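User: My advisor, Dr. K., asked me to get a structural model of this assembly before our group meeting. I'm new to this, so sorry if the format is off. These are the inputs:
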Amino acid sequence: MLDRVSVSHDDKVAATDQPLLIADGLSKRYGRIDACRGVSFELYPGEVLAIVGESGSGKSTLLQMLSAQLAPSAGRVSYRMRDGVLRDLAALGEAERRLLLRTDWGFVHQDPAQGLRMAVSAGANVGERLMAIGWNHYGRIRDTASDWLQRVEIDTSRIDDAPRTYSGGMRQRLQIARNLVTGPRLVFMDEPTGGLDVSVQARLLDLVRSLVTELGLAAIVVTHDLAVARLLSHRILVMKSGRVIETGLTDQVLDDPREPYTQLLVSSILPA
Amino acid sequence: MTMATTPALVVDNAQKSFVMHLQGGVTLPVVRGVSFTVQAGECVVLSGPSGAGKSSILKMIFGNYRCDAGAIRITQSGAALDIATAQPREILAARRDTIGYVSQFLRAVPRVAAIDVVAEPLVVQGESREEAREKAGVLLRRLNIPERLWGLPPATFSGGEQQRVNIARGFLAHRPILLLDEPTASLDANNRKVVVELIAETKARGTAIIAIVHDDEVRAQIADRIVDVTSFAAAA
Amino acid sequence: MIEASYNFAYLDEQTKRMIRRAILKAIAIPGYQVPFASREMPMPYGWGTGGVQVTASILGPDDTLKVIDQGSDDTTNAISIRKFFAKTAGVATTTSTPAASVIQTRHRIPETTLHEGQVLVYQVPIPEPLRFLEPRETETRRMHALAEYGLMHVKLYEDIAKFGHIATSYAYPVKVAGRYVMDPSPTPKFDNPKMNDCAALQLFGAGREKRIYAIPPYTQVVSLDFEDHPFTRYRQNAPCALCGAEDSYLDEIVTDDRGGRMFVCSDTDYCEGRRAQGHTGTESAPMEAADA
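Assistant: The format is fine. Below is the predicted structure of the whole assembly, which you can bring to the meeting.
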């Protein structure tokens, strides 16, 4: 069994006064189009950052660069590994990068079908990341999977059902369990409540919120929904045309928006 | 008042205006030249007609509104911190450890039980959930929130009940600065009395309180000093 | 004799050289799937074109060839391939496992222990063990490259979750020399232990998928499993009805339309050998003169 990643990792090095992730001048060009221009920020352990903006604002491109799925045209992303060393993601080997993605990071897709194996049972979906890091005891894998289903409020009697038999909300919760089972320190979320009914959204948001607090996770959440940003995030980046136009504490930016575009976004929220 | 110690809060020439880009970039001045200090164990009540910017000042102190100019100095973990220029992380830390805020309206999170809403500030400060809940329960009982409601999300509560949940949440964690925005507005006489008692106890513990209270009787009971905001009102 | 119009063993020498290079690479990287330029063969895909090309490339005039299909030397496919090489290469053929230098097989490993110098050539329909769960070839190749094999256990997990035990009974995945996970072709898992530390060279050819892989002699081959659900062999709990063997893999033969059935050795050569030594089973008929 590999011991590189123990689930209950005691992070001496992840003292909250050192950034976990640093984005430095991130830019991405597609031909003549600047999808993302000079984005820089620091993310600290336990901090939830929302990236908001309309479609085409560059927030998804940014997320892909941050999560090492897309190489920036300029700039870099550094991440503090569990050993406390800050590493440039571009300098990681593919094996290291993939290991990072399935152990210390999570990635929650808008469409659960992208983040889950739809034809494989819920238990195996959760267990896969454990098996990938060398867990080799069926009983323990299953118990852990069952634990996580409970934590995301999925009836454990559904453990052997494939997610294609699940509702949209359950699928999304399963995806979250699958991502959190290895005790990641950073979770990327791409419109996590995108395709869900409003009532289901509320439940999911509350779940994500409590898990993030409980586990002290850092998260980067891309959303166009300011209500999601307000509920989940500490800090917010507002993007427009590939640039970060405004940034700050979430309630500050939403209650006291400065930029014309942010004011427009905020004024466009329907009253609850 | 003895002035020997550093004030818990110094507001120094703070200024705030809104630029309404959607209304052709018109600038709405809110306050300017806001200057006052609050000592530990002192309760300062902001007065002035509505629209004078009292709530805005509280929001500026809490870091919810940004300052255009000036400084808002507090002591956070033994060091001076200017909220007006602080990094988001520093403001979050200040809210966790130093500044409590009872807003006019509870911003309820769906599905979270009232008792947990109240207990949260203590949990965030590192107290165990059980202990935090226990203390939250004591306060809720004092504020006459029936126990059968504790497990329910406050979104479904009446305005008065929500406000009392909000008050309990604000008073539970002991922080050196407490901001109160109309804490007694929708309360009956009995609960008003409880809040006045809570304020007195909190003051006695050395908390600096900045409050907005319209009720003359309550104001008279709690205020050590009144700061008239009218003089800060920027010409509208 | 070789028919005049064919090159030795049907394939032209350039092609054989190309395939031999692939085989050498496969031997050098045990369990790794080496792409090769699979040729059209005078038989349909699925009939063993991969195995036939490998056999054609390694066969020499002095070799003795045995071909089995599901353990049997007598099925259409086995006979056709045997005749094919008899005709195009003029090599000696045999049904005897010990006597053969090259054995081409579909779905079985002979019961008789293989010895040094022998080559076992498997016909492989689907070489990729990860495909069941990950259909993207680009992704499975990356997974092999990085030895990311968690997915293989997902398949076994699913088995246990559904059936209470690992129900995969053939094409049971193995890890070769501690590195590459490999599909042993649709052999029953009963045969898996025979691949481990085997004296013979094992070559795998997938014609349609254009892949060759190999297990060099005396290589560690481990069947994947869980600590609490270890790998087990499986055979019908019966002796062979013809030779009484208790240790061989059995085929179920339906004998009438009233539910009558019997179990007999799938390896016909092994069964005949035992009967020739006088072993009998419940359904043994008096031994007829077996033609070689």
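One thing worth pointing out at the meeting: Residues 13-28 of chain C form the longest helix (16 residues).

User: Perfect, thanks a lot.
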